[in-house]
Amino acid sequence: MRAEARIDLDAIRGNIAAVRARVGSAAVMTVVKSDAYGHGMVPCARAAREAGATWLGTAVVEEALALRAAGDTGRVLTWLWAPGDAFEDAVRADVDISVSGLWAMREVVEAARAAGRTARVHLKADTGLGRNGCMPADWPALVDAGLKAQADGFVEVVGLWSHFACADEPGHPSVPAQLAEFTAMLAHAEGCGVTPEVRHMANSPATLLLPQAHFDLVRVGLVSYGLSPVPEVGGPADFGLRPAMTLAASLAGVKRVPAGQGVSYGHSWIAPRDTTLALVPTGYADGIPRHASNVGPVLVAGRRRTIVGRVAMDQFVVDLGDDDAAAGDEAILFGPGDEGEPTAEDWARAIDTISYEIVTRIGVRVPRVYTGATGAAAAGTASTGTGAP
Ligand SMILES: *Cc1c(COP(=O)(O)O)cnc(C)c1O
Fold first, then answer.
1. Given a cut of 90, is residue 385 above it in pLDDT?
2. Is 265 a catalytic residue?
3. Atom of ligand 1 at shortest range from CA of 229
């Protein structure tokens, strides 16, 4: 093993159970975009289904089609579309499609016509995020287009939804403003005759902090993987969550160097005294941020250490002082934290980013190794009709 990301599928199941306990009758969508935030899409999707996620969410259609290719037959919503995207493949694969504007409605209608089947669409409202979604001024036209396409038999408008800008900042005035706008946009659509199966707005932070935003369905990415989206409010354990990813590597070398030894490109760190250095064979190609140079935390030889010198493409160096270690010993970059190892949140703090980015960027050169029940349990759940792959 040079390096590996160990993914605890039992933790993912437990995290989804914790979400279900929190949201009562609302359904749970586990967001598995970007290879399940770096955890591996298909195994995580299976674990999520087993734990009762009746929906999966993907950003792009290729992800949804990969779920279908892996045998998932449950509800999947995909929300980020560009003109010319594979709408017809999505309709044929029974993927729910988010529509934020008239051009997308036209493409969905064409796709449904070509596929000879009805497309399920979720109309997306921009209630204040200022990103994807239909602005309130354009909403009546989009609702009309949806109802017209529904009357023509091409689509079924099954969802009305939106996304928060600042749900991770308790007390931010945009939160009640977005809820009020969503309520108004729902009322307009329902007043026009839309009868949504699901109205949904909550991401991970809103799922944890804003019960009034749960509506019929919550869309949880980060908390499914056991990380806290609101570290200032609480860590994973405070919300009944357990981080699912442990990133480990084998030391590729340990050596004694004299005081004055410069380390790695640019010699941004120079040994202040005779010391022992350990070489960790992961670098920015593996998703270790170069900004972690001289600040990233790593557990080596039983203690937390700090990266010294620059993170290179394939490797970085840790200062062990006078402690002993040998090539082949394990370094833990991050994990749940209960063995003294840093967490993804510690990495995020060290380089001024969010834990989402730390786990999502772990590269394809790092194999994912799964722990926790797999296989038999997945097959068993397939027969319950919940759409387990
Ligand atoms: C990524 C994403 C989510 C999940 O966000 P988390 O904070 O990770 O739960 C939910 N909804 C949309 C539209 C997203 O793009």
1. no
2. yes
3. 7
